[in-house]
Structure formats: C-alpha cells, structure tokens
Amino acid sequence: MEQQTGPHRLKKRERHDQILLHLKLRPHVRVTELATLFGVTTETVRRDMDDLEQRGLLERAHGGASATHPGAHRDLDERRQERVAEREHLGRLAAALVQDGDTIMIDAGSTTMVFARLLAFAETRVTAITNSLQIGMILGQSARARVILAPGSYLPQEAAVVGVETCDYLARYHVDACFLGAAGLSEAGVTEAVEGFSAVKRAMMRQSGACRFLIDASKFGLTRLNHVARLHEVGTLVSDRAPEGALAQDLRDGGVEIILP
Amino acid sequence: MEQQTGPHRLKKRERHDQILLHLKLRPHVRVTELATLFGVTTETVRRDMDDLEQRGLLERAHGGASATHPGAHRDLDERRQERVAEREHLGRLAAALVQDGDTIMIDAGSTTMVFARLLAFAETRVTAITNSLQIGMILGQSARARVILAPGSYLPQEAAVVGVETCDYLARYHVDACFLGAAGLSEAGVTEAVEGFSAVKRAMMRQSGACRFLIDASKFGLTRLNHVARLHEVGTLVSDRAPEGALAQDLRDGGVEIILP
DNA sequence: ACCTTTATGTTGGATGTGCAACAAATCTGT
DNA sequence: ACAGATTTGTTGCACATCCAACATAAAGGT
Predict the structure, then answer these.
(1) What is the DSSP letter of A111?
(2) B261 vs A: CB within 8 A
(3) B27 reaches A (C-beta below 8 A)
(4) CB atoms within 10 A of CB A194
(5) Which CATH number applies to B76-259?
C-alpha cells in the first residue's frame, strides 16, 4: 500500500476505513506496519483495532489483526467458542453425507460455511453449486471440488447473491442433494430471517434429490419472518442436540430423518 | 476447539492437517495456543508453521499464523511495494472516469481490484457487473454501489468465474463502460495469460459503450497466449507511463485515448 | 474565548515471541 | 540391534508487543 502522502493526518474514522481496506486485500496486518504507514503511534493503532474488534469488524492477534471472514455473521454466538465447536460437529456430520462424485447445492450461511470448509479439507470429489461467494472460495480451494457460482444481486452482509436471477439460474441444474442452513426451526416449519434467502433455499430444494438442513439446537423453537419449508419437506435434519416436545413429535410425523453426533 | 484427547502424540503430518483445519474455521491461530493444544513446544509449532508457509498454505504473523486469503493472488508483482503504488495511481485515474449513475462491467484482475477498491472508497453511485468474487465483495461494501455477479465455473487461482455461462450471462446486459486489465499490450494488441479470461473480456467489450483498459507500463511490449483485442478496439488506455516507439505509434493510429498521471 | 470531552503521545515494566545452537528423542532402513 | 537422519525439546538472549497510567494535543459545544 502507498505511503501516506502529505501532512494531512488521518482522522480516526479514516484510519478505521483504511485498516479494514487493508484487511480486505491481505489476511493480516501488523500494528507496527500500520503505525508507520499512518504516521501515528502503535498505541493509536492498537486502540483503533480494539474498537474495530469490539464492532466485530476484525479479529485481534498478537502484534496485529486478521480479517474476519468477509460476510461472517457477527451475531453473538458466532463469537463464542462453544458455538464454533458445535458448528464444527454439525459440519462434520453433514460432510460425512457427501460421497465422491456427488453433485450438491450449498446455501449461504455460517453453518453451511463450516460444512464447506470441512468438505474442502476432506478433499471430497464433489460438484457444488452455491450462491455464497465465501463458500465458493473455500470449496474452490480444494483441488478435487468443482464449484459453480450462481449469478444475482450481491448482498454484502452475507457475501452472497440473491434474487430472481439466482433462482432462475439454479433451476437449470439438478443435483443429488442440497445443504441448507436456517435461522429458525419450529412447528411452523423452517424459517429464515434474511430477505431473499428463503426464495433461494426453496429454489435449491426444488432441484435436489435429497434435502439436508443444518440447524443447530439454538434455533429450535424460533420462527422467523420468511417461510422456507414445512416440516414434512425437510427430509434430513443435521443438528447437535435432539429436538424435544411438540417439535420432536412433528418432525417424526413429517418423516424427518434426524442426524445427531 | 476441542482439546487433544488421549496420550497419543500427533505426528508432524497430523499437526499440519490440524493447523490447516483450524485456519479453515478461524482466521488466525496463535503459536502458543496450538502448542498447548498439541502438547508440544512452541518451537515445534513454529517449525510446522514455517513449513506450511513455505508451501503457501498459510501466512505467518507475529505470534501465530493467518489463513491465506481465499483467492488472494500471490503472483510476484502483487507482493511488490512499488507495483502496488503504481496500481494505486492507475486505479485512481480510472476511478475518476466513473460518474454517479454509471453502469459498468469490471474484469477480474489485481489492477481492476485496486480500481474497485478506490471506487468503493469514493462512494461513487454505480451499478457494476463483474466476474470477480473479490471485486464483488469489495465494491459491495460500498453502500452506494449495486453489484451484480456473473455465474460460471469458479477459478480458484483468480477468485473469478469464467466459461460459456459467464459470457452468456454478460450478453444480457448493456453498460456505459467496461474496465479491463490485461497481461500484455504490444503491437499485436491486448493479450491475456489466464485461460478463460480473454473470452470474458471480449464479452464485456461487446456489451459496453466505452472500453477502458487498465494496463501498467510493465506490460508494454508483452504478448501473451490469448488474444483479447486489436489496438483499434482498445478505446481508452489508462496507464502509469507513456508507451514508446512503435507501440506508441500504433496506439495513435488505432485512435486510442491514453490517460496518464 | 472557555471548558469539557475525546483523541493521541509517552513512558516503563511485564510478558510474549523469534531465533539460533545444541541436546535428546524418535524414526528408518539395513 | 545399529548408525544415520529426522524430529523435537531445551535454553538463553534479543527483540516486539502489550498494558496501564499519565501527559499532551485536538475537537466540539456553549
């Protein structure tokens, strides 16, 4: 990056923007590096980073900071160790469902992202169609995966594309299975909070022989704004804890296969 | 993350895999963290990381390591300070050509990526269609930009999509201008090294009212494998130094507008 | 202009990290 | 079992980073 020109010292906000821009282009920046670049003290940069970390825009490390994966959800549970561990379990279970030669569709979401990472790591030979840029990039790193990206309007918060174009495009493919996340699972069915995602999820379901939902137990009982699927359409539910009460009964009635650790 | 279970000490290969797995799930890991997790010395972890870094599988940082940015270019000139500075100038010139309300297409490439970053930073109100995931993500961060992503086969080295689908999709849009990079500019015309990119570039040119090529002076005189455009089709050339000799003459003959710092 | 608030710089000591050289342990092939 | 290669542990020291407390400077409001 270029040296800061002129005598004009950057203001706090400008430095914050610059730091984030740097992290968009490289995975890691050092405190000292930025300090000399901005012409400020390391302490100032440190304070900047602390601020940005609190807003969840980057991840501190000793001597510098790393980018949070672009589009990563910043909700509370994303940041908690336990949640990450649970997501990893969940992703492992789901990845075990994929076999060499399978064709799949993968929905955008933090849980499906972990799933994609594990799939890439396992080097499963798979053809995957996704609307998530992150998942495309992650899975594309695997030499044995073939990735097809759907077009559409870009949604920066989720690093994914949505819209009519996306759904139309998906309708041109037929795959063995789709792997979907969701923001809520209740007796009302599967629901989603992000506008535009539900249509994509439904489009994926229509084109798939089997449908697998990756939903961790913290989503049980929640009903969000957008309807995705009724319980009998769920097919397979991969989760970290068994549902209880009426929800469990309705899932049984809907013939949902439940996969747990 | 879970604690390493059992008395079985991990072998080198297993530790390497574990480290990479960790980096797939988090952007950054610390040396000490992994050392206690694996039950080995920090020096061992350090050595592991050095190995992995040499293989380009992660990026070292003080006290730990970061995941290589998915899709991040690591070609030589990308890493060189001087080149970055020139690209920045070039991008600035190109960004000045875009006005509020414009519709544009942006090609994948490291130079166009800098251009997109500056466009996002300038908060130009623009509708952009691109085949580059990174450019989509960068420009999508700008609240005033609308980003449309083209579909296609994912090319991990370039973090972009290419192929027939990509070109077909682009043919459905008409824009004011396209901003393209290139690997070579000589009397033979504009040429490209990455297989699949030239077709996308040509598709973008066909759908654009104006064509802007962003090519830094180090590419002058180079001819790569894939033909992109003859000199008279170039339209506008944005660069950091004036071409010389026969190339300069041919550009004049071709009616190419040249924009320099 | 004044005061208040906020941002930034400075300092010093505690702690974390990197590096290099060597010792100990482990692996490997015969 | 043996010798040689590889891997890992240990140590000491140079250096970078962190943190907290205080001093100084800049910004904002009345």
Answers:
(1) H
(2) no
(3) yes
(4) 19
(5) 3.40.50.1360
Contact with chain B for residue A128, Cβ under 8 A: no
Q: Which tens digit of pLDDT belongs to each residue from A149-169?
A: 999 999 988 889 999 999 999
Give the SS3 label for residue B27.
coil
pLDDT digits (tens, 9 = 90+) for A184-203: 999 999 999 998 999 999 99
- Residue that is written with structure tokens 């704004």 in the block: A225
Closest CA to A48 of A77, A23, A79: A23
> Which residue ranges does chain A devote to CATH 3.40.50.1360?
76-259
Supply the pTM of this predicted model. 0.78
CATH 1.10.10.10 residue window(s) in chain A: 12-67
Class of domain B12-67: mainly alpha
Whole-angstrom distance, CA of residue A91 vs CA of residue A114: 6
Q: Which residue is nearest to nucleotide C27 (CA to C1')?
A: B11
pLDDT tens-place string over residues A206-219: 999 999 999 999 99
- Cβ-nearest to B151 among A27, A137, A150: A150
pLDDT digits (tens, 9 = 90+) for B177-235: 999 999 999 999 999 999 899 999 999 999 999 999 999 999 999 999 999 999 999 99
Which helix (DSSP H) or strand (DSSP E) does residue B115 occupy?
Answer: helix B110-122
User: Sheet holding B28-30: strands in order across?
Assistant: B28-30, B64-67, B58-61
Exposed / middle / buried, residue A136 (Cβ in 10 Å: 0-12, 13-18, 19+): buried
Query: B59 to chain A: which residues are within 8 Å by CB?
Result: 26-28
CB B65 within 8 A of CB B29: yes
